[in-house]
Structure to design on (208 residues):
């Protein structure tokens, strides 16, 4: 009977040696499990900086694209404004050209008018001279009328107050009698305007 009890106790209560053996057998499994979990944590730690780096790169790309878009828009607006300015200048220049159309032709005709006036100023005594002068007068009147039709008009000068914008003083004389200073006393060459533009200033003598 004593032997049976001893065997039961041995079976039911393992010895310290057996417990140590079991502990040693269990330890590798726990270490293996911990080792298995460790790479997962490291992988998570490694993935976080990469994700942040990709986000920063996307933000940088977005900022660069936005800046590029703003630059294109600015260039477009500037180009559009420049085109509008060019169109405005073109319209103004066209209006000016139409307004003063024929200016060069009128300038070329003025010396002809001067020569006709000189011819008309010559005194004649015979009939042939009178006939010739009458023909010159007809040509002169026709040219003068044509110039007026195209708004080419003579500048008022005789006895007018000197105006440097439309008169050119080539000589000065002393004031006489009741003359006022800066009064034009003689016209040496007539001046003409095309609308509001001076084609040629009048050459005058001014009393001072």
């Amino acid at each position: 009977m004593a032997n049976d009890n001893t065997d039961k106790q041995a079976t039911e209560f393992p010895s310290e040696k057996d417990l140590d053996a079991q502990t040693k057998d269990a330890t590798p499994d726990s270490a293996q499990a911990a080792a298995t979990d460790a790479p997962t944590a490291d992988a998570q730690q490694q993935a976080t900086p990469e994700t942040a780096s990709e986000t920063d790169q996307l933000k940088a790309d977005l900022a660069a694209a936005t800046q590029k878009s703003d630059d294109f828009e600015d260039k477009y607006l500037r180009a559009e404004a420049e085109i509008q300015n060019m169109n405005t200048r073109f319209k103004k220049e066209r209006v000016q050209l139409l307004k003063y159309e024929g200016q060069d032709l009128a300038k070329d005709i003025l010396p002809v008018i001067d020569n006709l006036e000189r011819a008309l100023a010559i005194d004649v005594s015979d009939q042939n001279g009178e006939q010739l002068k009458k023909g010159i007068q007809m040509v002169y009147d026709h040219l003068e009328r044509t110039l007026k039709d195209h708004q080419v008009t003579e500048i008022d000068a005789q006895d007018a107050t000197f105006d440097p914008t439309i008169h050119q003083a080539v000589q000065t004389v002393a004031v006489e009698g009741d003359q006022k200073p800066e009064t034009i006393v003689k016209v040496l060459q007539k001046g003409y305007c095309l609308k509001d533009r001076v084609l040629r200033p009048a050459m005058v003598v001014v009393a001072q």
About this structure: The longest helix spans residues 16-99.
